[in-house]
Every structure is written in structure tokens, then in C-alpha cells.
User: Which sequence fits this backbone?
């Protein structure tokens, strides 16, 4: 899959795709995607230790508002906000149970740091998203170099 294709699967706005692919200083598309996603808040930064305050719920709400769609009912988001978890992937799985009903998923973008970079994408692109080795660092386990979907 080309760099252009993976960018289009992650970012649904043409302006975002152009900004990433048109970066004259871009030498590593993976880094460009990560940096752009984090700087524009299109990716949610969450520490490996967990959330500080309903960050995943707020991210879902922001995504809904920006696209004028509904991914979850208010009651479902309130329950998700109160969900007790030991490891962050458990909370991500819970979020995916809710938003997958609407055809979307909360994915984890590979990073070399001690944080999660989460993004929402359509589930119709799930198979393609999970197949691309994005992080070219042999020191990182193979599985962690790919986009992750927890369910």
C-alpha cells in the first residue's frame, strides 16, 4: 500500500492528506502522520498509564461534533467515562464495542514512545489499516509496528 493510500485511510479530510503528503521536509511519512495527527488533535495522545480525565470520551465527542455524526448515545458515553480499567487497551476495547455499532473504530497508531496515539476511522478500512508496517524500527516488536485495533 502506498503512503498516499495509508494517509487517506487515516485522515478523511483532503486538506489533511495534502498537508501531510505535501510537507517539503517530509522524509518519513510515518513520522509526518504521527506529528500531524498529534499537533492538529486528530490523534488523541494518551499516556500508557491511562487517561487523566475522560479523554477518550471527549475525543469521541469532538469527532462526532466535527463531522456532525453520532457514534454513541449519551448514556453509552457516560458509562464509558465511568468505566474502570487496569490497562488502557481494556478501555479502548470498551469504546470499540460502542462505536463499532456505527461502523467506526478507535485505533492505536504505532509510536516509539511510551504513549498511545489513538484515532477514529471507518471499520470498512480496518483490514487495510492493520496490514501496514509503519514503524521501521527493528528494536520494537513486530506487532507494535502496525496499527492496532483492540476488540
Assistant:
Amino acid at each position: 500500500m502506498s503512503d498516499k493510500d495509508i494517509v487517506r485511510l487515516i485522515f478523511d479530510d483532503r486538506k489533511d492528506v495534502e498537508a501531510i503528503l505535501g510537507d517539503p521536509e517530509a522524509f518519513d511519512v510515518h513520522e509526518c502522520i504521527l506529528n500531524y495527527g498529534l499537533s492538529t488533535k486528530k490523534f488523541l495522545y494518551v499516556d500508557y498509564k491511562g487517561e487523566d480525565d475522560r479523554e477518550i470520551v471527549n475525543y469521541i465527542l469532538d469527532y462526532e461534533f466535527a463531522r456532525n455524526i453520532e457514534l454513541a448515545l449519551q448514556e453509552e458515553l457516560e458509562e464509558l467515562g465511568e468505566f474502570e480499567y487496569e490497562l488502557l487497551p481494556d478501555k479502548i476495547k470498551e469504546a470499540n464495542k460502542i462505536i463499532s455499532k456505527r461502523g467506526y473504530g478507535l485505533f492505536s497508531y504505532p509510536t516509539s514512545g511510551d504513549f498511545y496515539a489513538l484515532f477514529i476511522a471507518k471499520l470498512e478500512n480496518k483490514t487495510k489499516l492493520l496490514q501496514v508496517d509503519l514503524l521501521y524500527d527493528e528494536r520494537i516488536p513486530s506487532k507494535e509496528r502496525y496499527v492496532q485495533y483492540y476488540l
Q: What stands out?
A: The chain has seven helices and four strands.
